[in-house]
Amino acid sequence: MSTTADTPFPASFLWGGATAANQIEGAYNEGGKGLSVQDVMPQGIVAPRTAEPTPDNLKLEAIDFYHRYAEDIALFAEMGFGVYRFSIAWSRIFPNGDDAEPNEEGLAFYDRVLDELERHGIEPLVTISHYETPLALAERFDGWKSRELIGFYERYARTLFERYGARVKYWLTFNEINSLLHAPFMSGGISTPKEELTDQELYQAMHHELVASARATRIAREVAPNAQIGCMVLSMPVYPLSPAPTDAVAVMDFDHSNLVYGDVHTRGEYPGYFLRTLREKGIELDITSEDREDLTNTVDFVSFSYYMSVAMTADPSKKVEGEGNIMGGVPNPTLEASEWGWQIDPVGLRLVLNQFWDRWQKPLFVVENGLGAKDQLVEVDGVTTVEDDYRIAYLNDHLVQVGEAIADGVNVLGYTSWGCIDIVSASTAQLSKRYGFIYVDRNDDGTGSLARYKKKSFGWYAEVIRTNGAALTR
């Protein structure tokens, strides 16, 4: 891993950005696409689903990447992206999820996206399933509660590998797979209301996804042997609220609840602490001998999102969950928070990179990190832009910590900033919660021209990429 004196980042480091189909594409009923769970979730992850798409669901049009992908990819190239992480909409390929044949119009759309990326020399990083289970599978099978979905996902993944395997080197099986227990409809297409689900049902659904992920890894190695297959987890470093040993145990237990997904993906079996959890909850998972064999297909690398850290305590009187955090936890009194209550902790990114590397010894990829904020368009020397110094400061400080982790000896493949162009927020379904280097003129009420404007951070990130991180302020 060669670096130069003025930057810890290796010459091979992949700089770029990340989006998800349901938050960017729009065109929810074009090109033969079927409905997904996102098309009936107009108000973010905590809202109940609707019976059918409604006009207030901003994701139905999103930012119209479906028709504007060439323009947007050209802007990514102008920033110097070496990699672009995007997801494929399952219901654009198999409209009902269980169709016998894929939808050629959907496949052809992603061919065009890949054509454009290749034209600009940008490496694709593809998420196979990013919170976008076909609605028909949610309604007919109750999503990943059903073992049937393993076969449907297997067919979908094989179709993608056969079509794009020679063009895509990096693949992720499921987005934030450890979120299923917390957001079962969005993450797992489970129609049964969360409050009615048993632990047995949720953990069985988790098992089905893990088996499906492992099967996809096996299929990729057969069909696209030059590809690299990764898992994707939501990272959440956790600190004890006090020096009390019981708080340290609470931290360990919280950590285990997140780390089990990566443990299975990298080690090929369930760890002892998880088996204890199942025993104590009275859960007996339906695990076949074929399942156990499937799970031994471990990943090539681990990718993750990082937005915040939390604290943990054994004291029930202090267990107040942090605002906007679906994973739980206690606010850390030493940290400031974003407008949406997410605590800002750049050092936590270095810590989690070291933790994951020490634990799994697999290359790591930071595939989501960013600051959601309310941006305001202004005129500067006759140019419409956003003076987003707050975003620059946030990203700078986090990237410095990525550099520190690399200096620690951690193998980090790359970094893709979340929502590199403004997208519809998954957690709030708003467009006013903006992450991008590119402002999109669309508002929470659906109005706007969809015009694109470069923010101040656009030029800043371009310089960071051009200098391979030497431009960061330490």
UniProtKB/TrEMBL annotation:
Domain of life: Bacteria
Family matches, as PROSITE patterns: GLYCOSYL_HYDROL_F1_1, GLYCOSYL_HYDROL_F1_2
Name of protein: Glycoside hydrolase family 1 protein
Positions of the catalytic residues: E368 (nucleophile)
Keywords recorded for this protein, A-Z: Glycosidase, Hydrolase
GO MF entry, a single one: hydrolase activity
Entry keyword Magnesium: no
Gene source species: Microbacterium sediminicola
UniProt family annotation: Belongs to the glycosyl hydrolase 1 family.
Database matches in InterPro entries: GH, GH_1_N_CS, Glyco_hydro_1, Glyco_hydro_1_AS
